[in-house]
């Protein structure tokens, strides 16, 4: 029994000796064989070796041959308005358009300009183009080439819509024979919401015609000579 145990111990010893010999024989001796089994360690040690080799004299080099020199996406230039109230959509309160003639420029039109220009945000005087001359003392005169008097109100409306529709809340159209109380008008408009569609003025006076009782009344239209107030939404 004792001999059997001794033999088994000898066998274990021989097997262990053989395994140790084989392990020492196949174990790589060069450090590169070890690091190749771990790529991350290889790259790190390579970088450390490069840093130690070049030291402070190392200068990085940029490879720009395969990279575009300009941005692929062009940046659009944003055009900003000149005034902040234009960008914010803030409007002035009142624009006044006065329809006048050459004969009344220095009298009636000038009187309206002196009494109302400092109370409103902007005032313009509209006459026919063939009546325009260079020696007018009054400024802000607009002339139309179409001299037909019945079409002048429509030309005035088109001019306002093309140039000032988005700049003012209300527009007053009046002839030079009308009286404009600009102070009271501004006070009245200040109590009206700009969200309302405003068409305000003195109803056009008409008389009942017994011969034509079915003739439509003009009372639903305002008299231009007394002045008509329109909101920008109209």
Automatic annotation (TrEMBL):
User: Which positions fall inside the Fringe-like glycosyltransferase domain?
Assistant: 92-232
Instruction: State the protein's name.
Output: Chondroitin sulfate synthase 2
Q: Which key words tag this protein in UniProt?
A: Glycosyltransferase, Membrane, Signal-anchor, Transferase, Transmembrane, Transmembrane helix
Which chain regions cross the lipid bilayer?
Answer: 12-28
* Top-rank taxon, per record: Eukaryota
Compartments, as annotated in UniProt: Membrane
Would the keyword Signal turn up in this protein's UniProt record? no
One GO cellular component assignment for this chain's record is:
membrane
